[in-house]
Amino acid sequence: MQAVNRKFLKRALLCVGGLAAMSSALTVHAQSAPQGEISIPDDVKIFGNDNPNMRRATAVVNGDVITGTDVDQRLALIVAANQGKIDEEELKRLRLQVLRNLIDETLQIQEAKAADVSVDEAEINQSYARVAQQNFGQNTSAMDAYLKRVGSSADSLKRQIRGELSWQRLLQRNVQPFINVSDDEVNDVLARLKAAKGTDEYRLGEIYLAASPEARDQVYQNATQIVQQLKGGGSFVAYARQYSQASTASVGGDLGWVRLAQLPTELQAVARDMESGQLVGPIEVPGGFDILYLIDKRQVLTADPRDAVLALKQISLPFPKGVSEAEAGKRAEAFQTAMKAAKGCGDVDGVAKGLGAQVVTNDQVKARDLPAQIQNSILQLSPGETLPPFGSLEDGVRILMLCGRDDPQTESGPSFEQLQAQLEDDRVNKRAQTYLRDLRRDAVIEYN
Fold first, then answer.
1. What are the per-10-residue average pLDDT scores of the chain (448 residues)?
2. Which of 447, 433, 448, 437 has its CA nearest to residue 31?
3. Which pTM value belongs to this model?
4. In CATH, what number is assigned to the domain containing residue 368?
5. Residue 386 is part of which domain span?
6. From which residue to which does the signal peptide run (predicted)?
7. Whether residues 136 and 276 fall in one domain
8. In Å, what is the CA distance from 4 to each residue of 9, 160, 171, 311?
9. Does 432 reside within a domain?
10. Fewest Cβ atoms nearer than 10 Å: which of 232, 240, 292, 307?
């Protein structure tokens, strides 16, 4: 799974160069016939139904059947990620996109099988268990129950895992060995990285939709609808996995940490002005449209104060049942006054005990893992100082006291080996998109 989880800059547009430059030892499909100019008159006349496949829900891909149930169960994951807030028109579009994704997934699994690349069931089950733990904080039984409850299934998610692992393993064997990155290239990037010390670096999520000139307007409308769904509370990671046509789709659209110079020109000005948590798009780029989400921002090779490791004590005092908001405010104010009598963290337990409050200690809290609205405030505290009280009528009142702080060391940047792996990964993913394009071109697909 290491190759699946690496989060490097993986811009893999569908219009990248073909596989002809690769070694003849690669197991790929035969080259297509010479390309000619496609001629479409301006006054197109459609004979018959102008959209015959619009509502066809199933397909047979090189003999393998994709059923309506397959589509429904994969679609259910997207609906669940959006708390069911998807209108009927959007659902129709989602269903077609899911079908296209399943076709690509089927082609990837078929190609891996034809090349004698296999993935053991045990490995799929391990990945499934890891997804359950990381995304749901649950064991696999709870995950199974959740998927069934939302209308999906464990088999559907495991099939997606199989497709991703099969494709990655195929690329590792048939593409990666033929990718070369010279020492001079790596050293040049390292030099530019050091020269950029102190400049801003961005951790971005992307959803990329490819668009041919004739499909531009339709793809733009699709991208706009995705943005609306995301702004309405949709999961960016879920939408990226299902919609994005960049290779970062397998990691939820995460581009990793990048600098503006590494982005296409069209995205540089947009990213520069974004704030953490902001969503922007659709943005037209060569070959299609991008939707960007700024996950975080930092400075190159500069220590980020938010990476400081804090030692904290949380003092909690519950409210009586049925307390009014006014009474809760008075109790919180009295609690804060009483806690000021504590002379640092060594004394806080005794004071809290006298008030009937509970103390929880944690000395491994990263500042960046705290809610955004208190990160800067807590970094301004000295040991023994506290933040203002916070809480709710149900949870009671709480106060955080800073007991210590280990500041981060200055970032040294990626090593030669790490950067070389990133550059290789980028090239592999560009070849992967062309590989998949060739599989689509040669596939026999029957729609039912």
1. 32 28 32 52 56 58 90 87 74 84 92 92 91 76 88 91 92 88 86 74 89 88 90 85 82 84 84 87 89 84 76 88 86 85 83 86 83 80 85 86 78 75 83 87 86
2. 437
3. 0.52
4. 3.10.50.40
5. 305-406
6. 1-30
7. yes
8. 13, 13, 11, 34
9. yes
10. 232
